[in-house]
Q: What sequence folds into this?
């Protein structure tokens, strides 16, 4: 059914996806990286005289000020660090734990596999947010605990993906031959299986990065995740709730920052999935 | 079929048991409820604390408490709240309908939006409606649910004053929470409908239906969509957990008196029986829905029974 114009349009669309994604995510990363230079006070300076300044009114406070007179732009840019650090660290952690779990379960099968699959069942049955409530009630909220919780809850996705691919890969000729000539299991896993899993894992990691930022911000919004005294997008939105009637901008800009960051990552993930999938099953 | 049934049911029961055990154990690590109850009561001696523990039943060994909880589950007796002594089943009896009706309302919104949009995207593949739908779907996937809820409140409750900003009072209070979760679900579902539709439109019976000269609407909605049903049904099961989790968050924005609100209040008060029951009931629901969907496959598609 595919004709030249359709696929041409689709590939132009794909290219746009990449450009917009990298622009959004890149700009936000750069802004957050240089936040200490741009806003040395980190948006903590209280100026009661300028409290609740509306946005786009003064050059000093482009995005307005919050109920304590702190600059919203400075807080949004500084607060991005929490989301990006939590998102990145939890994805890296989940990759290590999840890929290892999936490799062992898929390659050795047996008890490990059964254990993993039951773990998956339990995870699917327990909504993330309820797990989070219990987890933080025991350990208390902090940046590190948020990362740990995200790793514990998200690593299963990597494990399932890797397990599935390994189950089919281990029956393929190149793995069977490696086994037949007596290559050690460890080398088969690291040299032959792992490189074949890289593509799907990178795609999952990008989309998971986006999702973890959403999860982190909702936890912090609910007062569960990161320490509320550190500026963060979720925390700012929680504080802003009381002032929704009088100061809309305090609720709008941190949320917009989350939306654009996550959108950038989702665009990149979407683009990666289609580029790394030569069959084009998903794009078509 | 009987073997498949028994295996799935046993697996489901096992999962419920593991979830309850993990939760029961974890919650007891969160702190001493006697200390919380005794707060603000002046000077408290160790003997007083012990009396409170006996009264709450938390002095007994863990396994006794857990077995007691399991026994209660069978008769839907979840014990009494540590705060105020209300039977937990009564609290859940009012909170669960609030959450479930919201869940169904959200699913309804999502089905009403995602099926026509997904079909439209599939039939206009690569053209502008398809791409517009794809962009909307990506934006929807990137929205924090609680912020979408806040923005709807800002627009429809504060600026336009069409809808109540929060609360649980009649039809109009359902609109914003259901639209929030419905839109978020639609972002995923619309892509699913599109992909499934594209697969189905290639199949022979759709060609036959077209060859018979049936109208395009009839081909799409009567013949093709019916075959998408099984895929959509599977996804519903996977989504159900996420939907309930999302509702728990959105309930906070709308002060919705559902299971999420109940859970948050229970955490603050170290109210073991309530928190444990909320998590157990929601998990059991999710497991139950997935079990039902698995069984429904067997009915819809006979090939699965023999596998």
A:
């Amino acid at each position: 059914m595919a004709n030249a114009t359709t696929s041409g349009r689709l590939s132009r669309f794909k290219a746009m996806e990449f450009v917009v994604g990298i622009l959004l995510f890149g700009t936000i990363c750069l802004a957050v990286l240089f936040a200490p230079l741009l806003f040395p006070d980190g948006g903590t300076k209280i100026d009661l005289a300028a409290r609740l300044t509306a946005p786009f009114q003064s050059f000093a406070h482009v995005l307005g000020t919050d109920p304590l007179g702190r600059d919203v732009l400075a807080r949004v840019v500084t607060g991005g660090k929490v989301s990006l650090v939590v998102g990145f660290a939890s994805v890296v952690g989940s990759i290590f734990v999840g890929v290892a779990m999936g490799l062992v379960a898929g390659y050795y099968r047996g008890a490990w596999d059964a254990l993993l699959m039951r773990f998956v069942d339990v995870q699917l049955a327990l909504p993330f947010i309820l797990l989070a409530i219990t987890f933080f009630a025991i350990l208390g909220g902090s940046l590190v605990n948020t990362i740990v919780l995200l790793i514990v809850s998200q690593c299963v996705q990597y494990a399932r993906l890797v397990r599935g691919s390994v189950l089919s890969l281990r029956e393929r000729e190149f793995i069977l031959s490696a086994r037949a000539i007596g290559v050690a299991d460890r080398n088969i896993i690291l040299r032959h299986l792992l490189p074949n899993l890289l593509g799907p894992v990178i795609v999952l990691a990008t989309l998971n990065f986006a999702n973890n930022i959403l999860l982190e911000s909702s936890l912090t919004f609910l007062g569960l995740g990161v320490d509320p005294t550190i500026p963060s997008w979720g925390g700012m939105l929680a504080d802003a709730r009381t002032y929704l009637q009088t100061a809309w901008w305090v609720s709008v800009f941190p949320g917009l920052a989350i939306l654009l960051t996550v959108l950038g990552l989702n665009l990149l993930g979407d683009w990666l999935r289609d580029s790394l999938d030569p069959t084009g099953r998903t794009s078509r | 079929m009987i073997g498949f049934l028994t295996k799935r049911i046993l697996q489901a029961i096992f999962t419920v048991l593991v979830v309850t055990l993990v939760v029961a154990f974890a919650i007891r690590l969160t702190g001493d409820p006697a200390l919380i109850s005794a707060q603000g009561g002046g000077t408290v001696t160790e003997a007083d604390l012990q009396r409170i523990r006996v009264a709450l039943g938390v002095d007994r060994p863990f396994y006794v408490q857990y077995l007691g909880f399991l026994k209660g589950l069978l008769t839907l007796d979840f014990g009494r709240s540590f705060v105020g002594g209300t039977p937990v089943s009564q609290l859940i009896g009012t909170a669960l309908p609030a959450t479930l009706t919201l869940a169904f309302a959200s699913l309804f919104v999502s089905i009403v939006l995602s099926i026509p949009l997904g079909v439209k995207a599939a039939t206009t593949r690569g053209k502008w409606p398809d791409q517009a739908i794809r962009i909307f779907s990506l934006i929807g996937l990137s929205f924090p649910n609680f912020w979408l809820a806040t923005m709807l409140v800002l627009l429809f409750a504060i600026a336009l004053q069409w809808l109540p900003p929060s609360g649980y009072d009649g039809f109009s209070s359902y609109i914003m929470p259901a639209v929030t979760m419905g839109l978020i679900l639609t972002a995923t579902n619309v892509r699913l409908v599109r992909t499934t539709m594209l697969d189905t439109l290639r199949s022979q019976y759709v060609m036959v239906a077209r060859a018979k000269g049936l109208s395009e609407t009839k081909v799409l909605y009567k013949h093709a969509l019916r075959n998408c049903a099984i895929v959509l049904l599977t996804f519903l099961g996977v989504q159900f957990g996420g939907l309930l989790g999302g509702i728990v968050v959105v309930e906070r924005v709308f002060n919705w008196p559902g299971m999420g609100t109940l859970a948050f209040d229970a955490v603050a008060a170290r109210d073991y029986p309530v928190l444990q029951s909320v998590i157990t009931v929601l998990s059991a629901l999710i497991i139950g829905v997935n079990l039902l969907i698995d069984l429904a496959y067997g009915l819809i598609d006979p090939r699965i029974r023999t596998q």
Q: What stands out?
A: Chain B has a mean pLDDT of 84. Residues 89-306 of chain B form a domain with the MetI-like fold fold (CATH 1.10.3720.10).
